[in-house]
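Catalogue entry: protein
Contents: sequence, fold tokens
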Amino acid sequence: TLAIIRRLREKNLVVGAAVGPFDDERVKQLVDSDVSIIVIDTAHGYSKNVIDATRRYSQYSVPIMAGNIVTGEAARTLIEAGASSLRVGVGPGHACTTREIAGVGMPQLTAIADVADVAVENGVSVVADGGIEKPADVVKALAIGADAVMLGYLLAGTHEAPGAVVYREGRCYKVYRGMGSRGALRKGSTRYGEFKRVPEGVEGLVECRGSARSVVEWIVGGLIQGMGYVGARNLSELRERARFVKLLPGGFKETGPRGFVGKITY
């Protein structure tokens, strides 16, 4: 990992590294390797271990992203501990079952808004982690306060994704698993705790999507069009001009294509 970081940094690329709350020696090695950002990668960021780790790791001159959290209270605590970026989301991921297993979580847009209200006052960035299924989700996440979004499900079926390729009935699929799934835990994932007893994620197949570039272009196209609809020239104007309204079942029914027979092609 350290050699890869050095090689990428020589090309002036931004490189982040995920660590746990007890990886002090690894953090020092990463900093010595000129890593761009340290990400404290846990499912529950509003905990004593993560708060203490944020405080320790922030002694270095490398930005610290801490999370995951869903409340303004958690945001304020991690900012005071030294976090320069906050990762938001407990349970919204496509392969995540935290809300079903632990009964804990918050709707993603509500969580982003709550955290962003505190983050913007302190000049700290907000990264939305989970729940992105289509370009509209990116538009709404950025409009309500996120500075960036993380993608898992949308990129899982691309050529560049690491999952194994599986063919069924002539169709191409890739294996996709959540970081809290049994398979990921067996491979050493510690995002949900080293001694996790019950998996908080699933694994399965997603359709092959082609190149990552084509997916990103699809997302960017939707974002540009969404900004155009609200008259925004940049992300700041998107946040200023966007308005959120309550959507009832009748309104939800008309948000997508309907009345077709068979599978719809986009």
User: Anything to note?
Assistant: Strands lie at 16-19, 37-41, 64-69, 85-88, 125-129, 148-150, 165-168, 171-177, 203-207. Residues 2-253 form a domain with the TIM Barrel fold (CATH 3.20.20.70).
